[in-house]
């Protein structure tokens, strides 16, 4: 892959990553997830966490979370807490973080503010960066300046602060040393910008994409240190990956265009032998291109891991958790959004993923998110999950729906009976609330057309029979019904639908005799007799 566009000037190829590959192989694996606390964690974010986590666990390494909060204007209250709650729900707990501690803290970049300036100054001293004193007005004027001769114009193009214009701006490259010192001594607002070299091609070997190269002349002179003294993402990510001894840096494809800046910072500041190996994960695609946070509301599926309540807009975005996904299913479906093990297997436990995951099998092409498939994963996981593990989430759901479940033995039996019919956790309510409270409505219309006196008499006799029953289990109840039906010349098949509707209210649910067994004698008889009155 190449980000290098054709040019007349010669390219100097710098094989940055070979050194890094060998260096990284000999060290303890250390990976990081580096979110900016700007909102809820969407599918792509959690997938980045997952792949980092799997890689760390596979190689017995460390997985850390670093909060990248240097852009104060984008900081969102509650986002950091949300990130950790999500990791907890997913079972992807880091080894080191703001919440977990560790030897390489602080793990919040705003608390490391003072450590970045020295690196920016070092770059200036060595001629790789410069002070820029341009005012907002001067920058605005620059953006609309005519483009350099030979540069193709596009209507939307605005002039970037780059090698074509830097010598016309107010910075330490154009001012004399004395003028620069004076401005600095007077405390004039300034930033530090990287001086992107002209006509160099920089490249690295991405673990997923292979060799990726960029032409430096096409990249602008990014700000490294802002006027408020905070580093930008570019400087902070490189400094911290170095100080935190990161061996592998994995992130989404959207960060690929930043790679040339980071590569050069590694080269200028720390030497290539310390540079982590990089991998850029493929985009997650929604129904119309890159999956956006807005797609959730638009197409009716969740895109965030958990409910996200945006404090700025007051808007609530539904999460996979609240929609009724099990964390195991969520991880499983995320793992396969961009990776497969090369075989037919689709259902993986976390342990299997740790064993089988490999960066080489992550695809570079975008991964299409299919909500129907996501639900299939959840259905398979509900089937696979033990009653023991389902008890607590299902009980919570009943509580939320104000349905009293007093007996855990019954609850366990109910879960065992209906779990194969549930795709999302709330299906348990629909599939089994009738076990705990009489149905609110009875589908009388489904029974009435075929209801007659013979059936009425049959159910009256069934009640008498069941009242006398000594054994109360599905098998006996079925036998009794069949005997009475035979004695009255009725086909059991015709009686099943009314019987089911009497007990559950509609045409759904597990085996009707299993339902009666769990409802118990008293409740079964009560429901039959009250329904007979309605049908009559
Ligand atoms: N802070 C960046 C983000 O919000 C991290 C990118 C990286 O991992 O380098 O995604």
Protein described:
Mean pLDDT is 92; it is low at 2-24. This protein has a four-stranded mixed beta sheet with strand order 1-8-7-2. It has 21 helices and 16 strands. With 536 residues, it is an alpha/beta fold. Helix 2 (43-58) links the parallel strand 3 and strand 4. Helix content is 41%, strand content 11%. Among the domains are: 12-99 and 237-284, HUPs (Rossmann fold); 286-382, Glutamyl-trna Synthetase, Domain 2 (Glutamyl-tRNA Synthetase, domain 2, Orthogonal Bundle); 386-435, Helicase, Ruva Protein, domain 3; 444-535, Arc Repressor Mutant, subunit A. Helix 2 (43-58) packs across helix 12 (350-356), helix 17 packs antiparallel against helix 21 (521-535) and helix 18 packs across helix 20. The protein binds glutamic acid. Residues 34-36, 68, 233, 237, 251, 255 line the site of glutamic acid.
List the helices and strands and how they pair.
Elements: E1 2-3, E2 13-15, H1 16-25, E3 30-33, H2 43-58, E4 62-65, H3 79-90, H4 117-125, E5 129-132, H5 136-143, H6 177-185, E6 191-194, E7 201-206, E8 210-215, E9 223-225, H7 233-243, E10 248-252, H8 259-269, E11 277-281, E12 284-286, E13 289-290, H9 295-299, E14 308-309, E15 316-317, H10 320-323, H11 327-335, H12 350-356, E16 367-368, H13 371-384, H14 387-400, H15 408-418, H16 427-432, H17 453-468, H18 474-487, H19 492-504, H20 512-519, H21 521-535
Parallel strand pairs: 1-8, 2-7, 3-4, 10-11, 12-16
Antiparallel strand pairs: 5-6, 6-9, 7-8, 12-13, 14-15
Helix pairs in contact: 2-12, 7-8, 11-13, 14-15, 17-18, 17-21, 18-20, 19-21
Glutamic acid (GLU) binds at residues 34-36, 68, 233, 237, 251, 255.
